[in-house]
């Protein structure tokens, strides 16, 4: 698989990831019970949303943000290329682990859809998955109708 140094090189190239704190005895994520339910949360999600909205309002700040992100991406790509040139085997194993990770995520999402209890939730997910343009939506629905509904009529 990965050698320890190569793995840390890949992990340290982008932004750092956060970990959920797990209880070592039970293996369940820890939850702080002292915080009341009615308290409004001002977490990273809210702060990030407000920051993005603030940047979008000011074109100068937006350009500065884009320049910083372009520089960060350029440095990341440079580091990746250096690691890849040194070790092709590491790249191959990283791609394999990424492929497996993505496949596990897709399988998990499929299970979630299969386990839905409410038809409303299924319809909401399907509507979000449909294209935004009405012509394309209609075309997709027609194809699905001809694929699933019309064969049943023939059998009856």
UniProtKB/TrEMBL annotation:
<feature type="region of interest" description="Disordered">
    <location>
        <begin position="33"/>
        <end position="52"/>
    </location>
</feature>
<feature type="region of interest" description="Disordered">
    <location>
        <begin position="85"/>
        <end position="112"/>
    </location>
</feature>
<protein>
    <submittedName>
        <fullName>Uncharacterized protein</fullName>
    </submittedName>
</protein>
<feature type="compositionally biased region" description="Basic and acidic residues">
    <location>
        <begin position="93"/>
        <end position="112"/>
    </location>
</feature>
């Amino acid at each position: 698989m990965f050698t320890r140094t190569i793995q840390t090189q890949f992990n340290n190239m982008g932004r750092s990831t956060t970990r959920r704190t797990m209880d070592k005895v039970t293996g369940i994520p820890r939850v702080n019970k002292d915080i009341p339910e009615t308290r409004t949360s001002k977490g990273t999600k809210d702060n990030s949303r407000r920051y993005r909205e603030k940047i979008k309002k000011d074109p100068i700040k937006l350009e500065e943000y884009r320049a910083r992100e372009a520089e960060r991406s350029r440095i990341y790509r440079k580091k990746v290329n250096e690691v890849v040139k040194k070790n092709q085997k590491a790249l191959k194993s990283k791609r394999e682990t990424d492929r497996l990770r993505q496949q596990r995520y897709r399988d998990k999402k499929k299970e979630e859809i299969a386990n839905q209890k409410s038809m409303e939730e299924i319809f909401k997910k399907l509507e979000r998955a449909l294209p935004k343009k009405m012509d394309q939506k209609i075309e997709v629905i027609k194809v699905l109708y001809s694929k699933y509904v019309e064969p049943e009529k023939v059998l009856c």
